[in-house]
Amino acid sequence: MKQLLKQTVYRLFRPALRDVLDRLEALQPLIEQASRLESQNASHAHQLTEVKSALADTARRVARIEQRLITGAVWRGGLSGCAVDQTGMPVPEMTAKYHAELAYWEAVVRRDSIPTWGMPFDDVFAIWQRVRLTELGEFLELGQGDAAFESLPAWARERRALEIGSGPFPALALMHWARAFAVDPLAEGYITEQLTPTKAHAAEIAFIAATGESIPLPAHTIDLVVIENCLDHVENPAAVMHECRRLLRPGGLIWLLVDLMDYRDNMHPNPFSEQSIKSLVTTTGFEVIRDRVNDHKSHPAAYGEYRVLARVMN
Predict the structure, then answer these.
(1) 20 to 30 A from 129, CA-CA: which of 197, 254, 280, 306?
(2) 72 or 287, greater pLDDT
């Protein structure tokens, strides 16, 4: 029990956890009682159980607060920076993950680490994002192929859009929107390292350093949320989907793509199957307008991808 208490108090040294200190202080009499009870006979077992339960409850509270700090952690600085929580304190458990992702983008953008492209990063991603937006136009029934893409700008000009986990080159950068936001915990790193594109409408995108679980924008102000191959990277996919629902206006749309795979690692803590992603969409307040599954994949361990256009339910 003493070891449990030491571990709990050690975790409380983080400034953002001060709100549970009062809870621990209130437990002090129970802790002292527990020490006495441990040296007495078994007739006090019930009382000892109550004390242990109170300590376990406090530990759970600490864990929940720590999880909020992790899901709100963002990157500060360039490649030599680190992840910090809402109070500005370093979050080592997220620094390694974010640094690996930022280093990947730096290699791809600046040093063309995929030589088979045969062209600069901006040009390659412009092609890929055009393909994705063309499919959006088709799902919106604006036409087929090039006609769908060419019809999309008129639709986009009337709408406020937000992309979560955008990377340095958001899909939204190919269109002029009424307003456009790119939310990414690495946003400051992209800008510091000068990885964002200079072509198309990229200058119109407002990058926001935030996680998809906690986006600093007012509710019901967005018409379209785009999540391109990002949801398996986040710490809490359900929280991201609920945040999308909060931000979207009545009838607002979510345009979502995920790899389908069983593989899990630090960069992909929440892989999806077709069944689990469909369940997440419908249980977080969205109705499917159109979806599809094919064998294309971004991650080598994936076996396919799922694409959906869904509408927020009123």
Answers:
(1) 280
(2) 287
Q: In what order do the strands lie in the sheet with 179-183?
A: 206-208, 179-183, 160-164, 222-228, 248-260, 304-312, 286-294
Q: Minimum mean pLDDT among 75-84, 157-166, 199-208: which range?
A: 199-208
Nearest alpha-carbon partner for 171 in 126, 221, 230, 121: 126
Helix axes 121-139, 146-156, angle to 10 degrees: 90
Tokens of 306: 């799922």
Q: Is 52 helix (H, G, I), strand (E, B) or coil?
A: helix
Which residue bears the tokens 């437990």? 27
Report the distance separating Cα 14 and Cα 181, nearest Å.
Answer: 32
- In the chain, what are the domain boundaries? 2-71, 83-312
Determine contact, residues 243/253, Cβ cutoff 8 Å: no
Q: Three-state DSSP class for 43?
A: helix
The CATH homologous superfamily to which domain 83-312 belongs is Vaccinia Virus protein VP39 (3.40.50.150)
Segment 206-231 mean pLDDT? 96
* Residue carrying structure tokens 């004390």: 51
Cα–Cα distance, 59 to 52 (Å, whole number): 11
Give the pTM. Answer: 0.78
The mean pLDDT value for 128-137 works out to: 96
